[in-house]
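Async update (no meeting this week)

Hi team, since we skipped the sync, here's where things stand on the single-chain job. The sequence we agreed to prioritize is pasted below, unchanged from the tracker. I ran it this morning and attached the output directly underneath so nobody has to dig for it. Comments welcome in thread, and please keep replies under the output.
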Amino acid sequence: MSPDLSAFWSIPSEELLRSLDAREEGLEEAEAQRRLKQYSANRIKPRKRSSSIHLLLAQYSSPIILLLIFASVLSFFLHEVTGATIILFILLISGLLGFWQERKAADAMDDLLSIIQVKATALRDGKDMEVPVESIVPGDIIILKAGDIVPGDCRILQSKDLYLNEAALTGESYPAEKMERTLEPDTPLARRNNSLFLGTNVVSGSARAVVVLTGKDTEFGRVSGRLKVREPETEFERGIRHFGHMLLEITMILVVAIFAINVYFSRPIIDSFLFSLALAVGLTPQLLPAIISINLAHGAGQMAAHKVIVKRLASIEDFGSMNVLCTDKTGTLTEGRVRMHSAQDIEGRESEELFALAYINSFFETGFSNPIDQAILGFRQPEISGIKKIDEVPYDFNRKRLSILVSMGSEKLILTKGALANVLQVCSSALLGQEVVDISLVEDRVQSRFQDLSSQGYRVLGLAKKLSQIDVLQAKDEENMTFLGFLIFYDPLKEGIEETVNELSQMGIHLKIITGDNQLAAKSIGSKIGLFKDRILTGAEINRESNEALQQIVQQVDIFAEVEPNQKERLILALRKSGCVVGYMGDGINDASALHAADVGLSVDGAVDVAREAADIVLLEKDLGVLKQGVVEGRKTFSNTMKYVFMATSANFGNMFSMALLSLFLPFLPLLPTQVLLTNLLTDLPEMTIARDRVDLELISSPRRWSIGFIRNFMLTFGLLSSLFDFITFGALLFLLQASVDQFRTGWFMESVISACFVVLIIRTRRPFFSSRPGRPLLMMTLLSGVLALLLPYSGLADPFGFVSVPPQFLLVISLIVGAYIGAAELAKRIFYRMNPP
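Output:
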């Protein structure tokens, strides 16, 4: 497309369409697919999904693994073919297992994310079509409404009362009005009111626009490319990173020392080098990234079965750790289907004229669809023929009013409805019966009626009118109006919501309501579900408190009423700074900032695009019962991930540590490099099934958080216990059984694998191991690894691995040691959890 479109806001619409080879009726689907190949997918960053070849190569990207491969290849040239072949074979099998698991996890996540893919409405083949945002191309004609995310940099072709939130680009928090016009080429970004930009969202109104730029070519794409913004690291990710670094540092120091000492004692350099590297493979938590990916993907799959879709895997841990949930009441605590009760004048009498004016206001409103207008339109239909709309000032979250200018015969009338206090602000008079009186004469009566209705749980709006001669309506025209009366709505509580809130409380999740409704209505809802303390905090009170004071107050308050959108984010941040792990559930245009601020942002499938895009987790139903099941699955995922961490710091680490120390005193290597790697492979097999393990009820009954101190204590306790029994094994083999070198290696291999596998069944639970049933895959793989370790020395593979068959007394001694180790581990576990309560 030849012309320079870098200043597309300055090109007349007709010329711009010709330059893009676009038409008002949209692109043909075949042409759109061709352009998608030409411009590539509409993304700022390439999708993180790795190709199969990259995922496979990543299994061998560890420096230690690469060194081991290099040393094995070197062994070929030194004619040590058998050992080198076995090492390479074991590494191949380990890598393929990791690849297979991670590929399954990645495919499962792609399937889940496709369920909640953000889409845009584009004209294709002359029809409105829902198209994935990634498939939008330059030249597409798109249709936008309130709540939609703009899918690219666009030029407006038609618009109606269009306002956009452009804070992400311009920093301006107040919505920007947009319209069709042609501007000068040097118009700055903040004043390009004929253009729409990727990353912004529609607050109100509607538009038809042509997409000019997509992906990295957009304004947002250029900015993000310069900033290199990284997704913030979660507490769990940070803990895993610190844990991995800690073990890696210990490993490198130990391996270098072992290699140097073996060389000092004049042992074969290649064998010493391979032995040191093989120990490093056993000591480092090389499976940790794969195990975490597998666990989180499996957890996401289980959560999806309960109608909870995870967009960002790392948020699962925060979901499980969440101890405070903030939510609006509409649709979460209530049915979410607002119904109109009545339209009443100031004296409390139902008024058909008042309802008809409210109906006109809702009928001609063209901003975002909302349940209040739907309730009015669905209540009944008065006669409104002959009435024409002239103009509108859409609802916004600062004014909290919606005004319509209509013509009724020879008269022009401004009709304004909104939050009662905000409507009264622009009224100087009121209609009392058939008489118009000064507003001051009825203010007390209005407030008394409002409080009475609100305390019964009703939502109350105000309606006002004003005769006018204007043709263009602006917000400043909302003045000197006449207050007419009340519009009264109700939204029944969901069936069983009291029980659900109580169950969440028992799970350690404290519910807090953050609503824009008045405090009396909020208090009524709170008291009905048993969620009420002595104090309700209002938006006006929030504004008066400092950030430090707010951190103290939010802990004591359960209900926040009359809250402005920007105050939601402030409340979330105050809760987080006070030490809470905070979830926020929102589905509206004004919830995006709070969703970003929370530890875990929760939205629903029916939410506006901007809310779903900001969320970490999307519920397919707006129901706290669904959320409760999701929390349970999140906690299971966290528990199973921590099980691998405990395994990596106990028997596995203890065995390798003991072997390293023993090699300093023996005149031979305690295990050959091939035997060390085989030990690693067999002990890894049960751990790769940990994602499907059963989780004890006490591990999911309350929120749990990462604790590096707890893990360090666990490693010291069980690592030292493992080493103690390792040295008992060494002593029994050397002094009691008088084992030869090959017998020592065979006996030690058997004991090492069997004990490491079976201790998994001990440390996976805080209960006595016989009272907590493990998952079938874990149990079967544990038994398989143990049987393989027992039978291998008696099979045809014994000779290539350097094993020999051992007499029955060896097996008896090994069995006694393993049995004693299991008993000691069970006793140590009981003492450890008594001294280190979670």
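Quick observations from my side:
DSSP finds 30 helices and 23 strands in the chain.
The radius of gyration is 34 Å.
Reply here if anything looks off.
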